[in-house]
């Protein structure tokens, strides 16, 4: 039913993150024989899905709340990207949400190609459950349906056109949600334009949401530690506590890379996400100071090059 946040609740919220979002449980007061409601307050969240708000400001944008399991959807045919998958895993684990990876459109690739994709996921140190599915043949859809339990909330995360809406229709047993025509490349069209919570017949709740182009990291140290536990484990064995994992003697991470036990690209992704999270987590004065220091280095380099050319 339509509901409006009371003025008192609006003014008591210390930031936009504290305002209601999809998945929140709220306390309400009913009006007009239950035709309308006023939202009095929000119940404490047990989990959350958030990202850095797109744009210049380092602020959180709340996407959904109180999610038990996030189905991270990637297409086998055109959308598969391990580095983006790592970002989704950091986001979900930072919000205390269990991730499950769904590889869609398996009917568009060979069994051998599918095995290669699965191997690349494991080689990257990703230990989340992976379920290959096809909305055309129905493969794996029933497995996903069996995972959904009464009283729990699930969501679908992924780029536009990977088959999320088609999967939702398969789970609810109807074609209530519009889907886009698939191109000759196997790439679907963007159809979901808003986040919505759907009640399933078995009592489970499913949140469908649009594809997200930006997955900015902000203060996700907990999610990084959980998603890159293999990197953290090797780092703990380094001889020096402040090891940069480059050329120091006794570096366990470089030893693991040399032995083929750790993927260098996986390490680089971890370091990149860590730097991004820490940079956006800085206060504004700290950022200005860092930007000024970088500017001085650039200017000094340009000046030095000018002297070299003069000589």
Structural overview:
Residues 177-192 have low confidence and may be disordered. Strands 8-7-6-9-11-10 form a six-stranded mixed β-sheet, with helices on both faces. It starts with a strand and ends with a helix. Helix 6 (221-227) crosses helix 7. Helix 2 (82-94) links the parallel strand 6 and strand 7 (98-104). Helices cover 37% and strands 19% of the residues. By secondary structure, the chain is α/β, with parallel strands linked by helices. The radius of gyration is 23 Å and the shape is globular. The protein contains ten helices and eleven strands.
Structural class: alpha/beta
Q: Regions with pLDDT < 50 over 5+ consecutive residues?
A: 177-192
Strand content: 15-25%
Q: What is the average of the pLDDT values?
A: 83
Number of strands: 11
Can you describe this structure in just a few lines?
This protein has 311 residues and is of the alpha/beta class.
Map the helices and strands:
Elements (H helix, E strand, L loop, with lengths): L2 E3 L1 H6 L13 E6 L4 E7 L5 E5 L7 E6 L3 E7 L6 H13 L3 E7 L6 H13 L5 E4 L8 H7 L5 E6 L5 H9 L23 E4 L5 E4 L12 H7 L1 H7 L16 H7 L5 H18 L2 H27 L1
Parallel strand pairs: 1-3, 6-7, 6-9, 7-8, 9-11
Antiparallel strand pairs: 2-3, 4-5, 10-11
Helix pairs in contact: 2-6, 6-7
